[in-house]
Amino acid sequence: xxxxxxxxxxxxxxxxxxxxxxxxxxxxxxxxxxxxxxxxxxxxxxxxxxxxxxxxx
Length: 57
Known about the structure:
The chain is mainly alpha-helical. It has one domain. The protein is built from three helices and no strands.
């Protein structure tokens, strides 16, 4: 939850929206290629902007 809170603060997005996004990805049995590509890029983007340690948060 701490990680979600940091993403939420960094992106100015509600934590519930991030959780919903993750749940939607998991609930799709066979995601289309386009959705898979977009989801992968979003996760890569979030990894890049995440603070490296708690001092950066």
